[in-house]
Amino acid sequence: MAELELDERKVKILNAIIKNYLETGEPVGSRTISKYTDLNLSSATIRNEMSDLEEMGYIVQPHTSSGRIPSDKGYRFYVDNLIQAKNQEVSEMKEWMIEKTEKMENLLKQVAKVLANNTQYATMISAPSVMKNRIKFIQLSVVDETQILSVVVMEGNIVKNKIITVDAPLDNETMLKLNMLVNTNLNGLTVNEINLGLITRLKEQAGAHGEIIAQVLDTVADTIQEGADLEVYTSGTTNIFKYPELSDSKRASELLTTFEEKQSLVEFLSDNDGNDTGIQVYIGDESPLSTMKDCSVVTATYELGDGVKGTIGIVGPKRMDYENVMDNIRSLKGQLDKILHND
Amino acid sequence: MAELELDERKVKILNAIIKNYLETGEPVGSRTISKYTDLNLSSATIRNEMSDLEEMGYIVQPHTSSGRIPSDKGYRFYVDNLIQAKNQEVSEMKEWMIEKTEKMENLLKQVAKVLANNTQYATMISAPSVMKNRIKFIQLSVVDETQILSVVVMEGNIVKNKIITVDAPLDNETMLKLNMLVNTNLNGLTVNEINLGLITRLKEQAGAHGEIIAQVLDTVADTIQEGADLEVYTSGTTNIFKYPELSDSKRASELLTTFEEKQSLVEFLSDNDGNDTGIQVYIGDESPLSTMKDCSVVTATYELGDGVKGTIGIVGPKRMDYENVMDNIRSLKGQLDKILHND
DNA sequence: AATTAGCACTCCATTCGAGTGAGTGCTAAC
DNA sequence: GTTAGCACTCACTCGAATGGAGTGCTAATT
What pTM did the predictor assign? Predict the structure, then answer.
């Protein structure tokens, strides 16, 4: 306990333990390390070092007298080192098979799927927060006597629509006026900026049709927000069965339930602090979701522009292939940023 | 083997066996039945009868000298009897908490969720086949120089939209003409009826803007079909973990994968023959999906009108509570038909 | 002729203990 | 500081023993 830092040899041994455990999923013993590493040390020496590492909290024994596995702190050390190392080297980007698609929804589903296939973990992706996104264009049209269709196009060509039911039929002239009114006043605004004051002002301007306007505006605001909280897409959730430590009935059930009821995922994904690289790793208990306490989660945010952000996430066992996952997610984030900005 | 039919006593015993097994999930023995039923018979007599029932194929022994469980044929007998009995009595409908919602998608998701909650099984629901659905209204509008928004409203207020990219900007007059053209010619048609001939004819009528028209029309047709094959919503898939016989790792994984990759569900749901009542029960191997060979599936079709159909389905263990499930699904089908027709 | 009591038998599930092997911690020697 | 050696721990596997639920058959009963 004299030193707080790990000396070079301990680092090597710790890395060897972790790497081996990532591959096998089995506790790793001193003999294995003694042969695995290039530093020529006997198993006894390794045992001493491992004893130290355990005391420092980097590794733990599942049971007395079995090999060691990394603790959350051990993984954290490993991942932090990885990030440092990776930041220096230029990671060559894989090209992704993402077709540029008109619909945000399809794009996101596709991204989740590709990522799940590539990594063999479960993935999730949240749509860019609609609240901060700007309105590009609004179209109101008459469907029949009592129904009006409202279509709102936002930045990034996200389209929202809704059928509005009105009491009395609207003539062409009124519709024209309505369209003019909403487009001149609302285009360029975000949902947050459409407040009651603005609505009242427009209502006055509309004169005779004030009530209708109010109703339509209300519904437009509603339309945009509707279901906004639930737009998370998942893919590869059944990949968790590939990892024995997650696939016992109880754990699998809990995890999959979390994925099915997207609500908590949404909160998780909108939670990100966003450090410098935009990539964040949650190991075990670091995750805000208790059902994921036996998992690691890697997230990254992508931008649609102007602070409008969404988040991608990968969920796997703690012994996930962090290197591959981070490469993948970094590359994908780049692609996504590019696609969305060129739009 | 003298008679082919089951006498009344055998029917009673078979029913008792099945009912008991539905509750417990354990093989049921002769002593249990001897006490369970009102016909006062000793276990020995029951054993003789059970021996007969086994020979006839209605029940099986998991192992020599353990209780009996129903065979698929046994379940089938039970279910068929149930249907007959139920058809006579007027089943009082539960009222469902389905809010009438503007969007078909939300409606379906909600239905799946309610049904899953009520039955505690996994549910799935397919959207009404868009191919046979009629176009109610089309709106084309200019978003910016190169982008046109096309919105198609179909019967049942299903809204489809897509951004169309064009080479040259279109002026107001052309847009007006385009809108007139598509609305007068396409409204009331189904996707199937928009064929190449029609498109060519419209193209001629459009004269100078023929190329644009063609492109727009193509895209409109595309829009409607887009993703049409994938519109299946599932809910409560993790309920399968409530039933031990389905929740071992391998089976659960296969089943959930089937639910995740909706493709095969779509095929299943569009497969229905639709008998008189519209409700169909698949027991074990009767199901077209091999991953569901240990399950039972109950489906019902609902109508949006004019032959435009969708299907609801419930997936659970073979020992599902058929009575409750069929009640639920029948009631829900009714509700759904009502909601969709009043629209 | 149908039903029942009695009994031997089967087979699953559980428990128990011995044996095995990977791995550790400690001590003493290098 | 490093290593060899050794006793010890503990999960895991395997087979035998046990118990219990349930059957099938036969003989007795109604």
Answer: 0.89
d(CA A231, CA B103): 15
Q: What is the DSSP string of A64-94?
A: TTS-BEE-HHHHHHHHHHHHHHHHHS-PPPP
A215 burial via Cβ count (<10 Å: 0-12, 13-18, 19+) = middle
Chain A window 62-101: residues with CB closer than 7 Å to nucleic chain C are 65-68
Asked if A233 contacts A106 with a C-beta cutoff of 8 angstroms, the reply is no
Tokens of A127: 């749509």
Q: What is the DSSP letter of B163?
A: E
CA–CA distance, B17 with B50 (Å, rounded to integer): 9
Look at A151 and B151 and tell me if their CB atoms are within 8 Å.
yes
Query: Per-residue pLDDT tens for A164-218?
Result: 888 888 888 888 888 888 889 888 888 888 877 887 888 787 777 777 777 777 7
Q: How many residues does the structure list for chain A?
A: 343
- Whether residue A143 lies within 8 A of chain B, CB to CB, comes out as yes
Paired residues of B169 in beta bridges: none
- By the CB < 8 Å criterion, does A157 face chain B? yes
- Residue A186 CA to residue A219 CA, distance in Å, equals 13
A273-308 residue pLDDT tens? 666 667 899 999 999 999 999 999 999 999 887 778
Q: Is residue A225 within 8 Å of residue A192, measured between CB atoms? A: no
* Structural contact between residues B232 and B127, judged by C-beta atoms closer than 8 angstroms: yes
Q: Are B33 and B13 in contact (CB under 8 A)?
A: yes
**Number of CB atoms found within 10 A of residue A168's CB:** 8
Contact A74, A55 (CB under 8 A): no
Residue that the structure tokens 């007998």 belong to: B77
- Asked whether the beta carbons of A153 and A130 are under 8 A apart, the reply is no
Angle made by CA atoms A123, A128, A130, in degrees to the nearest 5: 140
CA of A46 to C1' of C22 (A): 16
